[in-house]
Structure formats: C-alpha cells, structure tokens
C-alpha cells in the first residue's frame, strides 16, 4: 500500500514552506488573498477567518519559516527571509498577484513583500502591526525580554504564562474564554524555542520607516478593480505616520468589497497596537 499523500489543500513549496489553499483550489476567478500570521503561532490562527472568507476568496495560508509545519526549516528567520520565502509559495500556488493581509509580525512580512515585490501585491491590509517594533525604549526592553524568556521557557511554557482567560472590557479590549485560551496555547506550543528566539530577534531588526511611504499598494484603502476610488469611503486611511506609531485603524462599511461582512477594529493601546477591540457593524 502506498503512503497517503497530504490532505487536500495542503502543499509544500519547493523551498520547504508549508501552505494551505482554502476555498475551491480551481476557483481561479476568485480573488487570491494571502494571509500572514504573527510571531509564535502559525497559519492555523486564521482558521476562524478562513471559514468566513473562503466563499469569496482563494486563500493562501502559509506557515512562515520556523513556525508550525515549516518549523524544521533552517534560518535565518528575519523579516527579509520570511518575505523572500513567499516567492516560492506564490509561484507554487500559481498566484502571480494577490491581496495580502498581515497580522502583527505577519504585517511586517507583508510590508517587506510589498516593498521588494510590489508587482505581486494587489492590495495590502495591515492589522495590529508596526513599521518598527523597537522604536521606543519600552519596546526595546520588551523585545529583549521576549528573547530572554524564550531562552528559559519553551513556547508552550511561555504560552501558559502569558495567555490567560479574560473578560471583555468596556474600553473595547477583547476577552478570551477558556476554549480560546486552550486553542492559542496549543498553537504556540507547536513551535520550537530556537527558531522562535531567532524570529524574535529578527522582529527587532525590522524597520520599514525609511521606505514606508513609498509602498506602491496603499494599505487597506486600495479599491477593487470594479470600484472607483471615489466610492471607496469610510475605509482605512493610509497613513505611514500612524503605522510608525504602531497601529492601523479601520471603521465604517466595506464599500471597497461591497456585500461582504467586515469586522470593525480599533487600536486601544499605544505602542505596537497589540490589543484590538472588535464589534459587528
């Protein structure tokens, strides 16, 4: 009996990066959307979002180098390498151009991709991310502490320490119930400590501020080809200065993608925009 192949939708690019395609793989008429996850998790963090977006998009969801099912790949694990890896992923998926959504550290990778491969990025959506995550003394201390903690704890041990259940707060901070806590801890525990330490150091070396304003694809506010820019109202305004301060603000109806449900997000703390509040329109 021959060995079973990978489950449908799971792929391995020639450079070893694992990725999934969600939605009908043959649906080339659907807009491709690349989802880039944050530090110490994997593409599985997008599973709830995939369930919502799969009917409308062809979703490409990689595990970045050193994370998840790409965790055994050798470094480097800096942002430049993580972005360069996506060339092979997009070529293997036969996607020459796509929308890109990056969350947190994935937002840094998305910015780097748009900078080095602008022709591959149709539009750019950045969520809870940063142009430089060591711009202030506090952030430099936090980055050093994170790398140090990963020298003492495994990602799973660190997850048990920092990921705790909480209730939503009136100021908009999202709570986490026990099931969500277990899910996030499991995502973090699936990673190895050494690549996570290196990725955390790579996070500290990323700085998009010198070229941020020159990105060819305006994040979030770029309209769909069938939607005139003048009709694209109440969407995120592209502000390099705001991203440099550590957050992205989005509100209002989604007139760029008519008929699609969009959650509304707002930044509820300074620094890197780590906490988000969320509500249905």
Percent range of helical residues: 25-40%
Looking at CATH, the homologous superfamily of the domain at 10-132 and 207-279 is: Alpha/Beta hydrolase fold, catalytic domain
Give the biggest sheet.
6 strands, mixed
What structural class should be given to the helix and strand makeup?
Answer: alpha/beta
User: CATH class of the domain at 10-132 and 207-279, please?
Assistant: Alpha Beta
Give the beta-strand count: 8
Shape: globular
Helix count, DSSP H or I runs of 4 or more residues: 8
Mean pLDDT: 76
CATH architectural name of the domain at 10-132 and 207-279: 3-Layer(aba) Sandwich
Uncertain runs with pLDDT below 50, 5 residues or more?
1-5, 217-281
Radius of gyration over all CA atoms, rounded: 18 Å
Determine the strand fraction and express it as a percent band: 5-15%
Cα(first) to Cα(last) distance is 53 Å
Q: Topology as H/E string?
A: EEEHEHEHEHHHHHEE
CATH topology of the domain at 10-132 and 207-279: Rossmann fold
Cross-sheet strand order for the largest sheet: 1-2-4-3-5-6
Name its key features.
281 residues, alpha/beta, Rossmann fold, 6-stranded mixed β-sheet, two-stranded antiparallel sheet, 8 helices, disordered N terminus, disordered C terminus
Report on the structure:
By secondary structure, this protein is α/β, with parallel strands linked by helices. It has a domain at 10-132 and 207-279: 3-Layer(aba) Sandwich (Rossmann fold). The chain contains eight helices and eight strands. The strands form two sheets. The protein has a six-stranded mixed sheet, covered by helices on one side. Strands 7-8 form a two-stranded antiparallel sheet. Residues 1-5 and 217-281 have low confidence and may be disordered.
